Amino acid sequence: MWGIKIDRESELPLWRQIYQAVSERILSGEIKSNEVLPSTRELAGILAVSRNTVCQAYDMLITEGYLISRQGAPTHVAAGLSLEKTPGLSLRTDNKAAKTFDADFRTGKPDLRLFPRFLWQQLNNKALEELQLDQFGYTGPQGYPRLLGEIAAWLYRSRGLKVDPVNIFITAGATHALHLATGLLCGNKGGIYIEDPCHTGMLETFLQKGCQVIPVPVDEQGIQTEHLEKKNNACAIYVTPSHQFPMGGILPATRRAKLMRFAKDNDLFVIEDDYDSEFRYSGEPIAPLYNMDPQRVIYVGTFSKILFPALRIGYVILPGQFHKSWKSLRTHADVQNPPFQQAALAEFMAARKLDRHVRKMRRVYSERRKLMLSELENAWGDSFRVMGDEAGLHLAIEFPGLRFDDTFRKRCLENSINITPVENHCIQKGRHLNKLLLGYGHLSHEEIKKGVGKLKKVIQDY
Ligand SMILES: Cc1ncc(COP(=O)(O)O)c(C=O)c1O
Asked: Is the Cα dihedral 140, 143, 146, 148 positive or negative?
């Protein structure tokens, strides 16, 4: 069927192979808009796999918006997805931490208490002992070769992404990657499209690089591509399509196709920040935009959420045309990442400890998310609404009729509650005043219960 071949020897799960084959054929136009798909039973029979395997692949395709499934109608392909690929190579503190709060709902904070610190210490010692002496010298700006290989293998195992390690460049986290990518693409002065609301730290990075920021509104599903308008000096689009920060949406396939088409028509590059895509609690991680056009997308990954922020290791996957200038930028800025943590991380990944840690943390965060939701329901019944996908380390919630302004934030701080309204992340103000962000990843069950109780009191009296 559609020439799909299943490789039973592959490390890639069968459902992902089917998902990838179908999504690629939809994007290339081989499977047409509105085409009705075979039933899961039928396809399972043809491919000689279990029906569950096909159901899992279809569920992912529906979640990402490739397929439409409505009760009483057959599952069919969404309209407007086919995308011509670019020909070419397919190679591929602040000091807030010091302050403690009775209720600390800050976003983006992993639970560092559950990090396997002892093992990490052992791996660091081992790296220091075993690294060849030449690794103590200048070894070049790309990164420790073994780590590049481990990242490529991890991306394949966890996301089905096929990347040649020669296209991977280690950075000191996503912020550093964005700083360098902006220098590379925008020559320190071009325009950059950015989601609004967005991560204020990333916004600041672009502003400090002298970029002109072009805000594009975001709704529950992510960047509203219908608002992308041509600007003459623009050089790039920065997006978080797997889990929009802060609203939490997964960018649907139709918008992904529109975004990539807009980028292509206007000769723009896309910077895809995949900061916490590993933590998705229903279904599998979302396929990156990078899959759609590896020559136009600079993919940014980080270990800050899956391991710990102070590690300062992230990476980019770069189209070949940028390798030389990236190396030059990096060499003449901070030269390279230190080899020791890179070697320890490579060992951690090779021993599949990262897989295990991510699996464990996914379970922990998923339970915390559920608890946070049930506590919110106990406190407010159905008078609030959760935005976005079941993913990440925070919730974005809307309270229709309420306004969370500076006075509210101040009131919270007076009551030892650290919480951020979505409005604080907005470039254009006034559109998301009734929404709050509640980080839960770093909170124990007790802390969640206590925190929601305190918040309820402040909101009641507000
Ligand atoms: C949208 C987004 N990107 C990236 C990061 C991670 O940045 P870094 O790797 O520099 O720690 C964060 C951290 O909160 C984030 O929210």
From this structure: negative
Average pLDDT (16-40) is: 88
- In 3-state terms, what secondary structure has residue 337? coil
Residue 199's pLDDT band, with cuts at 50, 70 and 90, is very high
The three-class DSSP label of residue 385 is: strand
**pLDDT tens digits for 130-157?**
999 999 999 999 999 999 999 999 999 9
Q: What atom of ligand 1 comes closest to residue 176's alpha carbon? A: 10
Statement to judge: residues 238 and 181 lie in one domain? yes
Average pLDDT (433-456) is 96
DSSP single-letter state for residue 381: T
Rounded percentage of the chain residues whose pLDDT exceeds 70:
96
Cβ contact 318:169 at 8 Å: yes
User: Please, are residues 76 and 34 in contact by the beta-carbon 8 Å criterion?
Assistant: yes
What percentage of the chain exceeds 90 in pLDDT? 77
Q: How many residues does the chain have?
A: 462
Residue with CA nearest ligand 1 atom 14: 108
**DSSP conformational letter for 194:** E
Specify whether 183 is located in the same domain as 142.
yes
* Tens of pLDDT, residues 311-344: 999 999 999 999 999 999 999 999 999 999 999 9
Is pTM beyond 0.85 here?
no
Pocket test for ligand 1, best of 170, 223, 275, 425 (most atoms within 8 A of CB): 275
Does residue 197 sit in the same domain as residue 339?
yes
DSSP structural state of residue 424: G
- Same domain for 62 and 168: no
Domain that holds residue 242: 122-353
Together in a domain, 273 and 142: yes
Q: Are residues 239 and 385 in the same domain?
A: no
User: Taking the chain, what is the end-to-end CA distance rounded to the nearest angstrom?
Assistant: 60
* 283 & 184 share domain: yes
Element (H, E) at 414: helix 406-414
Q: Where are the alpha helices (DSSP H) in 48-172?
A: 51-63, 117-130, 145-159
Whole-number pLDDT of residue 368 = 97
Predicted confidence (pLDDT) at residue 414 exceeds the cutoff of 70: yes
CATH number at residue 194: 3.40.640.10
Tell whether the model's pLDDT for residue 88 goes beyond 80: no
Nearest C-alpha to atom 16 of ligand 1 is from which residue? Answer: 199
Give the residue, out of 112, 178, 202, 208, with the most ligand 1 atoms within 8 A of its beta carbon, to mutate for a pocket test.
Answer: 202
Residues with CB under 6 A from ligand 1: 108, 173-175, 199, 202, 240, 245, 273, 275, 302, 304, 309, 314
Measured torsion, CA atoms of residues 304, 311, 351, 126, in degrees rounded to the nearest 10: 180
